[in-house]
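Input chain follows. Return structure tokens only.
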Amino acid sequence: MDEEYDVIVLGTGLKECIISGLLSVDGLKVLHMDRNDYYGGESSSLSLNQLWKRFRGNETPPENLGASKEYNADMIPKFMMANGALVRVLIHTNVTKYLNFKAVDNSFVYNTGKIYKVPATDVEALKSPLMGLLEKRRARKFFIYVQDYEDEDPKSHEGLDLNSITARDLIAKYGLEDNTIDFIGHALALFNDDKYLDQPAMDFVKRMKLYAESLARFQAGSPYIYPMYGLGELPQAFARLSAVYGGTYMLNKPECKVEFDDGKAVGVTSEGETAKCKKGVVCDPSYLPDKVKKVGKVARAVCIMNHPIPDTNDSHSAQIILPQKQIGRNSDMYLFCCSYSHNVVPKGKYIAFVCTEAQTDDPETELKPGIDLLGPVEEIFYETYDRFEPTNNHAEDNCFISTSYDATTHFTSTVEDVLAMYTKITGKALDLSVDLSAASAAPEE
């Protein structure tokens, strides 16, 4: 271990593994360490026995739930957009050869007390029971504008500069109702709150286009894909990638103390040995607690069921977004449901997660709007965890710290954080202009 590396990565969470893989592909010499004896950190997938140990201590899981090893319960459950940045990273690094994906059956939104399929195109808008007849026509015109919008084609702009007008101004032009704005902003553009309404409309339109393009890519009922056997496969796939390009992995390394010289991270010590690094240390917040601040808390429920979520067309996998206004909260609530069709539970079983940004210390009460949509539940586990953000200046201390995972059940914010860290470390943006049509990330049937 007593040698020099370009970068030392601490923790094998998903973000850290992606960074490790990307830097290794770039030719950097990477040492990757973890105090745990397993991959994944906070984003690991648990067997049934591990799930029970985490939430119920020494109790034994009931036999009717099936074999422990058939469970792969993600602790940070998220679907990935079929045309999104994470898929582009997977293809850019060729990690797809280590993974198999399957499309997610459906994407829903909670609106005025009911669950509806999210309409993403002008054709779907006309069919959607979410809107009345006149609103459907207005929404259809808006969807057509978004679908036809191209940066390079001024004719498609209809005289609007999306870098200067706000999303609110753009929406006002089409006279859309509040409930329509709610599902478009939160379930299509995937914003966590309503701040986007007063920001330039360009990001809003691009997010809507990404949703529609992802939906069209595999002709599935949703724009999302998800790995067979759960997200625990992702950190391990990027770890393999890093190893192929010369990265060194060391699990079960206690302490992992970051060493500083003149305020800059210069190495990591574990078990009396020190590895040096030239560019710095990458880690999750738990490794440098004095360089992060608490910014929030996530409330989460993990539910095991023997049926799909009611009113979801018997979907074996689905996301449901409950926009904040619809449930009288300060932030959205997210439902993630998966099943034996993705090999994350035994045949006939379903696993659902309900997550939101916590406003109290009572997850049971806070998550009730989402839990109520699930129908009968065989087992349910509640917990909260704190979210942290780095407070350091990476240019001064050579420490590149990821932010904690938020409550969303899609990868938008996670990938934004990874790409920002990559740019800070390398001084360049990651080129994600891959040819998706020729890519091998196609899901299984």
